[in-house]
Amino acid sequence: MAGIGFALRRLTSRDDLLGIVQGYTHSAVVSSGPWLFTILAVGSINLFGIYLTTVAELITFRVILIYNFAFSLAFSGPVLLVATRYLADMIFRKEVEEAPGMLLAAMVLLLGSQAMIVVPFYLFVVDLPPDLAAAGIVNYFLVAAIWLVNVFLTALKDYRSVTLAFLVGMITAGGASLWLAGVIGALGITIGFNIGLGIIFFGLIARVFAEYPYRIMRPWRFMRYFRKYWDLALAGLIYNLAIWVDKWVMWCAPEREITAAGFVTYPAYDGAMFLAYLTIVPAMAIFIVNIETRFFEHYQRFYRDIEHHANYHRIDSNHRNIIQALLMASRNVVILQFCICVTVILVAGRLFDVLSIPPLQLGIFRFGVLGSLFHVLLMFVGIVLAYFDLRRVMLLVQVVFLLTNGLFTWATMEMGFAWYGYGYFMASLVTFVLGYGLCAWYVGRLPFLTFVQNNTSVR
């Protein structure tokens, strides 16, 4: 699934600054497109929308978007990871004829299962006008659909069309939302935002079908992977729950707010954490362009030489190269993310003044930035575990992340406002230390895993 990374690496290897800027910009969009799109579009809506509609209308839209992003990502995890594994296996076998059918079947499965959650929620749990509830449901489906199409993006080679889809969608969402905000308030903002999401979704899915121009065949064949890779599906659910559990816990804080429609939220915590997550975008971009591609080359050589019956010296040399590549990658990411983390923490006060962000969020934001430092490292550990098919280990790490993030956040919430955000930071740190230790132990024993533990012929 590192396909687009090689195309972007060639772009950054050009002997000019523009190639480097273009390469990492495209990589940032591929790795964090939905997140960047949402932050920039919502930021522009909040900045200019205050002159066009009421604060209450803006809050209603923002809460709808937070709920839709949280629950669509959390509950779509199993389908996303199983679809990723199925697509990766097809690409490995060079038999991608079933890709379009799998995408459509996964879309039906995802949206059908999500409908049983989102429709009753908007119709019976919260108190919204019918038209706004319908717009919220459509927004949920569009967000969930983009999560799924995102699975295919790293396998594409046309990175320009991906960036263009997000750029046009973001501009359209911001413009349409502001235009409709003064006419029909929160409903107009949501409809305008849905138009932008629709452009992104149809632009991306058109690119996928252009990349895989095959007729629909055996669309439901991937369903057997849910039984074969149940632990992978469960890991997808647990990990996405772990990402959001601290926000849900903080919605029980004494400072939480309940909107007129019945949504429970804590804007100070949610807003600070969302901004903190932006600090991981550079690391994600570098991971796709440089780290994953270099690691993948050594990874592929290790298993290819084994298939060609290489001698022990060659296998051992390839094993050492994998370890060296991972160590170099770890060093580069740690240095980059640490520098970003320290810089952002030091300038946070001034940054909040410029952006007119309430200083109440400053402490939470700084803890969030520290937590994001270890969270992004934990993400890379999970990717490495997935590469070596260590699904049970990955599941264990995600369970620990879920439990620690929930428990630590609850404990620090009980300790008072000064400790808000500390639970997420500690959970990310503890889980990363555990995940890194397990990853290092298993990768260090890679030949044994390959020839003995994962070899069904010797069991």
Automatic annotation (TrEMBL):
Transmembrane regions listed in the UniProt entry: 35-53, 59-82, 103-125, 137-156, 163-181, 187-209, 229-251, 271-291, 333-352, 364-388, 395-413, 419-443
This protein's record includes keyword Membrane: yes
Keywords: Membrane, Transmembrane, Transmembrane helix
Stored InterPro entries: PelG
Keyword Membrane: yes
Name used for this protein in its record: Histidine kinase
Native source species: Minwuia thermotolerans
